[in-house]
Design a protein that fits this description.
alpha+beta; 2 domains; 7 helices
C-alpha cells in the first residue's frame, strides 16, 4: 500500500524550516505505526522550496539526504509552494512529501541520470523555464512512456532556477518516472474563459495569425471584444488583459457547457493551450500570439476569470472522486467496508494516498480572492489528503505546456 506523509514550514532560515517539516513528517509516521499501519520505509521524497532558498539548494539537498539516506529525492523551486490547504506565496518556505512506493516502481531521472531500469508508464516532470526546446523534450520523454502522460511544471524563480533529482541540477528536464502499477488519477483545470466564438485559423505565418474563418484576424479580435481602434486607450487596456486559447487540428477546442448568444460563459477543455496575445500587425490585419500557429488550428480569444477558475477546479475534484468511487464501492462490498486507515472503503478519499498540485504562478496569491483560497478549494473537495506542490512558470499535462492552469494528480493507495 502506498502511503504519503507531508511536512511544511515557512521560516527565514531554511534549516529551521527543514527541522519543522521533518518533525511533522516523523510525527505522522509514528502515529501511523501506532495505529497499526504497515511499517514500510519511504523510498521517494519530493521537495518543493521557495526561491528564497534557491541559493542554498545544494545544502538543502545534502541535509535531506543525511536525514533520510534511503530516500530518492526530486523537486524544484517556485515563487510559491503549497501543502494541504496552505499556500506559501512570496515567502521563504518548503514543503516535503515522503512516499512508501516500492523499489522498482519509480526512478528519479535528469540529464545526468538517464531514464533506465524501469518500464515507465507516466512521469512527474520538473523543467527549467529557460530551456528553449522544452516542448520537444517533453514530446521525446512522453514517447518513452507507455501512456504518454506527463504531469508537472516549469520551476519559477526571481533568482536561481534549479531542480532536485538525486542532486541539484540546472537546465532541461528532471523528475520521477513511474511504472504502470503505480495507481494515479490526474486532471487539468483551466483558469481562462472565452470571450468570443471558437474560430479556425485560415491564414498565418509563424506566430502571427492573419485570418480567422477567412476574415482578417484583427477584425475578428475587435469584433469579439467589441472594441474599436478609434478608441486607442480603451482598446489597448482591454487587449492587455486578452489571451488566446489554441488547439491543434487533431483536437478542436473542447468546451464544457453550452454557450449563450453573448457572454460565452463556457470553459476550455484540457486540450486547449492558453497563450498571451503579444501584439497587433495592422499592415497584415493580424494578431501575434506567444506560440507557433498553423492553418487548421482553432482559436478563441479569452480572459482570465476567477469565477470560472473556481468552478473548473471544483469540477476536476468531483471528476477525480467519481473516478475513484467505483473502485472504492467494490472494495467496500468485498472487504467489509473499511480500509486499513479506518476510513469507510466506499469513500473515494480513502483511496487517495497523496496528491501533487502544480498551479500557475499567475493563479497564486490573490487571484482566487484570499490567501490559500485555491488550495482550500482542493482540500474542501477532496478532504485531508496529503498534498504538496508549487506555483510554476508553466504547467505540464499530457504532453503539453500550459499557462494559467492547475494540474492535480492523485496517487491511489493500492500498488501492484
Amino acid at each position: 500500500m502506498t502511503r504519503c506523509f507531508v511536512g511544511h514550514a515557512a521560516h527565514p532560515d531554511w534549516k529551521a524550516a527543514l527541522a519543522l517539516a521533518a518533525t511533522q513528517l516523523e510525527a505522522q509516521r509514528a502515529q501511523h505505526a501506532q495505529g497499526g499501519g504497515e511499517a514500510a520505509e519511504p523510498a521517494l521524497g519530493l521537495a518543493y522550496f521557495s526561491d528564497r532558498y534557491a541559493g542554498e539548494a545544494e545544502a538543502l539537498y545534502a541535509a535531506l539526504h543525511r536525514r533520510w539516506p534511503g530516500v530518492a529525492w526530486a523537486g524544484t523551486v517556485g515563487v510559491g509552494v503549497c501543502a494541504g490547504g496552505v499556500e506559501y506565496f512570496d515567502e521563504p518556505a518548503l514543503v516535503l512529501m515522503l512516499a512508501t512506493l516500492p523499489a522498482g516502481r519509480f526512478r528519479v531521472f535528469s540529464g545526468a541520470r538517464p531514464l533506465a531500469g524501469i518500464e515507465p508508464a507516466s512521469a512527474l516532470v520538473h523543467a527549467d523555464a529557460h530551456t528553449h526546446d522544452v516542448a520537444e523534450l517533453l514530446a521525446e520523454l512522453a514517447a518513452r512512456t507507455s501512456t504518454g502522460y506527463l504531469f508537472g511544471g516549469l520551476g519559477s524563480s526571481r533568482t536561481r532556477l534549479c531542480q532536485i533529482a538525486e542532486g541539484v541540477v540546472e537546465g532541461g528536464l528532471s523528475g520521477v518516472a513511474f511504472t504502470g502499477d503505480v495507481g494515479m488519477v490526474s486532471r487539468i483545470t483551466q483558469g481562462s474563459q472565452p470571450v468570443g466564438p471558437t474560430r479556425r485559423i485560415t491564414g498565418c505565418e509563424r506566430n502571427v495569425v492573419t485570418e480567422l474563418d477567412g476574415r482578417p484576424a484583427l477584425e475578428c479580435l475587435l469584433a469579439d471584444l467589441e472594441l474599436s481602434l478609434d478608441q486607442p486607450q480603451r482598446t489597448m487596456a482591454r487587449l492587455r488583459q486578452t489571451l488566446v486559447g489554441l488547439a491543434t487540428p487533431r483536437a478542436p477546442v473542447p468546451l464544457q457547457g453550452s454557450a449563450p448568444a453573448r457572454g460565452w460563459h463556457r470553459a476550455f477543455g484540457d486540450d486547449v493551450r492558453v497563450r498571451h496575445l503579444i501584439g497587433l500587425d495592422p499592415a497584415r490585419h493580424g494578431v501575434a500570439v506567444a506560440d507557433l500557429v498553423e492553418p487548421g488550428m482553432t482559436l478563441a480569444f479569452c480572459q482570465r476569470d476567477t469565477a470560472a477558475a473556481r468552478r473548473d477546479l471544483v469540477r476536476i475534484c468531483a471528476e477525480i472522486r467519481d473516478e475513484l468511487a467505483p473502485e472504492t464501492a467494490l472494495a467496500a462490498t468485498a472487504g467489509g467496508g473499511s480500509d486499513d486507515s479506518g476510513a469507510p472503503a466506499a469513500d473515494p478519499v480513502s483511496r487517495m494516498a497523496g496528491a501533487i498540485y502544480v498551479s500557475c504562478a499567475g493563479r497564486g496569491g490573490p487571484h482566487f480572492g484570499a490567501p490559500s483560497a485555491e488550495l482550500q478549494i482542493v482540500r474542501h473537495a477532496l478532504g485531508d489528503v496529503p498534498l504538496v506542490g508549487f506555483f510554476a512558470a508553466g504547467e505540464i499535462g499530457h504532453q503539453q505546456l500550459y499557462g494559467y492552469t492547475g494540474v492535480l494528480t492523485i496517487f491511489t493507495r493500492q500498488v501492484g
